[in-house]
């Protein structure tokens, strides 16, 4: 992984983070084959447990994730992922975002999801997920629709978190001068 060139992760309020990504088409095959390993390397380096293409400036429906990498790496690349079913039961879990570094909040989402996607070679796949994997899949698929985890918070919590982030960024850029 170390020789793969990393990608810059875009931070809030980059406009592409608020745009709907387009489906990956057959003509994108070469681009996606080049992008996916770079996204995985960028995610592991961050470190993170997921990454969506818009976070690295690509408006394509492509995500990578590995929620177990500290124990045994299990990289996943999902092309055109779709949530096709969600549980009635909800779960609350703390989330972070590589596009909002240093900001964390409890987010309520369906506890279990069924997801369909294609592999890089076009094979159709489907799985049911719960726990952290279900949370991460929903977080990453949200990115493909221009949704950030902060959109699931109350307006008060969201504004506080975003204000704190922008203040910290301002301080960081002043320190760098
Ligand atoms: O999409 C992203 O911004 C990546 C994000 C994914 C995510 C985190 C938590 C809950 C749902 C989705 C991250 O990976 S933030 C970093 C993080 O949570 C983490 C980093 C190292 C080890 C464990 C977690
Ligand atoms: Zn995120």
Name the features:
single chain, 177 residues, alpha+beta, Peptide Deformylase, 5-stranded antiparallel beta sheet, binds ligand K1U
What do you see in this structure?
This protein has 177 residues and is α+β, with helices and mostly antiparallel strands. The protein has a single domain (15-176), classed as Peptide deformylase (Peptide Deformylase, Alpha-Beta Complex), CATH 3.90.45. The protein has 3 helices and 7 strands. Strands 1-2-3-6-7 form a 5-stranded antiparallel β-sheet. It has a two-stranded antiparallel sheet with strand order 4-5. The mean pLDDT is 96. Bound molecules: ligand K1U and zinc ion. Residues 97-99, 139, 143 line the site of zinc ion.
What is the strand and helix layout of this fold?
Layout: H1 29-45, E1 50-52, E2 62-65, E3 76-86, E4 90-95, E5 105-110, E6 113-118, E7 124-129, H2 131-144, H3 155-175
Antiparallel strand pairs: 1-2, 2-3, 3-6, 4-5, 6-7
Bound molecules: ligand K1U and zinc ion (ZN).
Ligand K1U binds next to strand 1 and helix 2.
